[in-house]
Amino acid sequence: MTGQPELPGQPEKPDDAAHDATPEELRHRIEGTREELGRTVEALAAKADVKAQAQEKATAAKEKAADAAHRAQDKAAFLLRSARDSTPEPVREKASQAATAANRNRGPVLVGAGVAVLALVLLLGRRSRGRHC
């Protein structure tokens, strides 16, 4: 021992290992060390690349949101089919007729809805004023 602390990855006796190794073994060790160093540098560079990490997280979030949207669409379609299948035919026909009539007479329907909302607002306004007096 040399009295220095031993570092991980180093041979126990660096002087003996270096003297016993052939030049080919040393070249092989050096090449392995270079490859390991290259991988380490790449890993450190990837960790330091905040923009790339943010883009990866954004992409993952988009994919997750798209997946959730597809699941919601599938569930909505399933519920719509279930409701349609469980609704009696006469009710479906009447609903279809009402929708068609409302579309044909959109103007009068909107005017009627507006009058109803106005009447409701006036009634609620009178009630609240009557309580304060």
Strand content: under 5%
Rg (CA only): 39 Å
Tell how many strands the DSSP assignment holds: 0
Spans of at least 5 consecutive residues whose pLDDT stays below 50 are none
Terminal-residue CA separation: 101 Å
Number of helices: 5
Provide the structure class: mainly alpha
Structural topology:
Blueprint: H1 14-20, H2 23-48, H3 50-86, H4 89-104, H5 106-132
Please name the defining characteristics of this protein.
5 helices; elongated; mainly alpha; 133 residues
Write up what this structure looks like.
The protein is mostly helical. It is built from five helices and no strands. It is elongated, with a radius of gyration of 39 Å.
Offer a quick outline of the entry.
This protein has 133 residues and is an all-alpha fold. The protein has five helices and no strands.
